[in-house]
Design brief:
The model has no long low-confidence stretch (mean pLDDT about 85). With about 110 residues, the protein is mainly alpha-helical. It contains 7 helices and no strands. The chain folds into 2 domains: about 60 residues, Orthogonal Bundle (434 Repressor (Amino-terminal Domain)); about 35 residues, no CATH class.
Length: about 110
């Protein structure tokens, strides 16, 4: 059996070095409510779920255990969208995206300055 929702919160909260008290404060819920989420006694609303994921720097899919690659975490909503779109493409479409991305990554006008 996979990791429960509550275990996911605990894992990513600890990975981000955020205490239960601090996470509860940031997302605007009580400490006890968050404790109930972590013990799988209660489930959050969609808006609270989104807040938790945002603070923990993960997608909602990852938080609820739907992401097949939990270590591949989008850094922002644009990356998450690009990944979702990429996954809808067939092999040929994915290949074209990778070719085009490779060309763009070599162009100074399209890359970030390090």
């Amino acid at each position: 059996m996979g990791t429960s929702f509550g275990q996911q919160i605990i894992h990513y909260r600890k990975k981000n070095a955020i205490s239960r008290k601090r996470l509860a404060e940031i997302i605007g819920i009580s400490y006890d409510t968050l404790r109930h989420y972590e013990k799988d006694i209660r489930e959050p609303s969609i808006s609270t779920l989104m807040k938790i994921a945002k603070v923990l720097n993960i997608t909602v899919d990852t938080l609820v255990g739907l992401d097949p690659l939990p270590d591949l975490i989008a850094q922002n909503s644009s990356e998450a969208l690009a990944l979702r779109i990429f996954r809808t493409l067939n092999d040929t479409g994915q290949g074209r995206v990778l070719e085009y991305s490779s060309v763009l990554s070599k162009s100074p006008q399209h890359t970030r300055k390090i």
